[in-house]
Every structure is written in structure tokens, then in C-alpha cells.
Amino acid sequence: MRPILVAAAVAAFPLAALAVGSDDSTPPKPTQTNTDCTGAQVWDEKTQSCVDARDSRLDDATRLDAVRELAHAGALDRAGAVLDAIADQSGDGALTYRGFLARQTGDMDAAMLWYARALDSNPDNLLARSYMGQGLAAMGDMAGARAQLTEIRTRGGRFTWPEVALRLAIESGRAPAY
Known about the structure:
11 helices, Serine Threonine Protein Phosphatase 5, Tetratricopeptide repeat, 2 domains, mainly alpha, two-stranded antiparallel ribbon
């Protein structure tokens, strides 16, 4: 019953779910990047076409949004190719998604290292904390997962997607699909 209450709270308070930024708090909605583009292509709103992820018309924020979308859709190879095109490879967003891709492919040790680097860069990265906690929960380290949940809440992330996803992972013992 508790998961239903949390889902209802997030649905009832959409602004709370966006408290840390819409790019970090909710799973991405599919765009043409996923439906029309192939390989390492990203949908460019300005030209209304698919362009190579390294195209200079794209900025890193657009690339990172594409990585999130593709990773959410399970297109891990494509997400990795777009991630490689991000200019700022040391940014916490890129580091977070390096961790996510490593975790999705089963390399938990590498995932934890990437998440730690993301959090060294930005301790308030709630998404990295959630993904790290989900990985810890999947490995059976519930104390570590709960510590990340506490950090998310302490840093203002209550009722956000990172908080809800990690809490559900702790309660169920497995990470959500995304």
C-alpha cells in the first residue's frame, strides 16, 4: 500500500517532483531521438532532424537529455555513444550516466566508482545518489542504500523521483527498471 501512497503523492504534487530540476527528477519522455534517430544521432529541435551527437549545433545539455532518454528506453549502446560525444566528460551528469550504464551492464564496481566521482563533483546530485543507492540495494547493502536515501531527503529531495525510486528499491530489494 505504501508504494501506492508515494506514487499518489508524486502525482498530486508535481512541483515537488520537479524541485531539483526537471532534467533530474522524472524519467524522460520519448522524443524523436528514440523514435526516429538511429545510432549516435540526436534529434535537433532547431533543424527538426536527426544529427550526429558530435554535431557542433548541439550542446551538452541536449546530449545529456538524449543519453537519459536512450538509457531509459534500454538503448544502452546508443546512450553510450551519445555519452561519448559530451564535451564535459568530468561533469556530474556525464559521470552519473557512466555509472548508470555500468550498472545496467552488470559492472557494479565500475558503477559505484562513477557514482562516487559524480558525487565528488556535485554532492547535491540526487539522481547519482538514487542510482548509487539502487545499486547498493541490489547488492544487498541496505545500510548503504538507506544512507543514500537519507542524503537525498536531507538535500531537499523528498517526494522527487530519485527519492521515490530509491525508497521503492529498498522496500522491494530490487531496483526499478529505470
